[in-house]
Amino acid sequence: MRRPPRAHGPRGLRFALPPRRVFEPPSYPNVWFYVSERLAPSQAAAVEFITGWLRDHCGIADDFARFKPPEASDSQARLGGLQPWREAADPGRRHAHDLHIRYYYVALRQNGMDRVVVTDAGLAAAERRVHRNAPGRGAGREGERSAYRRFAGSVHYEVEDEHPLHPYVEDCPFCGRTGDYAGAEDLFAGVHEPLGLELLLYGTIRGQPVSRPDGRPVPGLVGLR
């Protein structure tokens, strides 16, 4: 039997992730949010805390100008107007970019996988079904257990939603199958997803800092710790 994937968190904490069968989307989520029960006693509170924080500090908001298919997600948001490609020889291929993220949390809650308990020593503890009236656990001494509420996201970097060629322009030097990504077999999984993670975590695309339309830098989550 294939073991579920693991993610590493602060201080070397290791989190066992849910199996693929929990999710409907075509690919497994590529970013996970764990919020201590000291901050969020429920998954709903964790979702509100994280999405609100990303909106207020990073500008990632649900501001789509038209209907955006959810693709099995529970909500979604973006940071738009990034890195306009104005040098394309064909004016019809010129475009800006979106950092687009879809959030997934309902299926985790329905399957009792929205709460996880780990030890401060860094070993993954058994996950258990959420009890609505379970008291929160604060962080204790080394070796004691701490509880987190969690949900998932799928983040990627793509041609802006309003553009007729959304989401792909193969030869774009920012989001296309170019440079270090020239050999990628799949444009979404091999280019758009790793670029989205790079921008979300580090505020860069292909190693270069990215600015918002108003000139402010895009803050990477790693730098905001």
Describe, in plain words, how this protein is organized in 3D.
With 225 residues, this protein is an alpha+beta fold. It has one domain (6-224). It is 16% helix and 25% strand. Strands 3, 4, 5, 6 and 7 form a 5-stranded antiparallel sheet that branches. Strands 1-2 form a two-stranded antiparallel ribbon. Strands 8-9 form a two-stranded antiparallel ribbon. A hairpin with a 5-residue loop joins strand 1 (6-8) and strand 2. The longest helix is centred in the N-terminal third of the chain and has 16 residues, at 43-58.
**Are there runs of 5+ residues with pLDDT below 50, and where?**
122-141
Distance between the termini: 37 Å
The sequence of SSEs as H and E is: EEEHEEHEEHEE
**Number of H- or I-type helical stretches:** 3
